[in-house]
Amino acid sequence: MMKIITFSLFIILAVFNAVSAITFFSEDDCTKDVQQPFVHCRARIPVWHWDHRLQRCVLSLFGGCAATNNNFYSQEDCFVIAGPICGGHRKYKPYYYFLLY
């Protein structure tokens, strides 16, 4: 019984997380950078964000604090959430990048 409750709670949290990400992303977020301006954090976390000029999701480095809504863990999440709102109506096509540290 405990496993069923734990699994149900996990599913509810996963659905809430997905819905909240879609609900809180707006057209204003399409032009934002991964991190708020004038905040200097030292982490170098690879994340995906919507690039308004290129009209697609691109890989960038996140400093680790003061995140904006234009910050996704995967390219697919970025495309599914930001694409319809920001105007990327093309079919999802993965892009591959190499990060040089």
From TrEMBL:
Tell me which positions the record assigns to the signal sequence. Answer: 1-21
Carries keyword Magnesium? no
Keyword Coiled coil annotated: no
Checking Pfam families in the record gives: Kunitz_BPTI
Q: Which GO terms describe its molecular function?
A: serine-type endopeptidase inhibitor activity
- Domain BPTI/Kunitz inhibitor: residue ranges: 30-82
The protein's superkingdom reads Eukaryota
Alphabetic keyword roster: Signal
Q: SMART domains per the record?
A: KU (SM00131)
Can you say what this protein is called? BPTI/Kunitz inhibitor domain-containing protein
Please spell out the taxonomic lineage of the organism that makes this protein. Answer: Eukaryota, Metazoa, Ecdysozoa, Arthropoda, Hexapoda
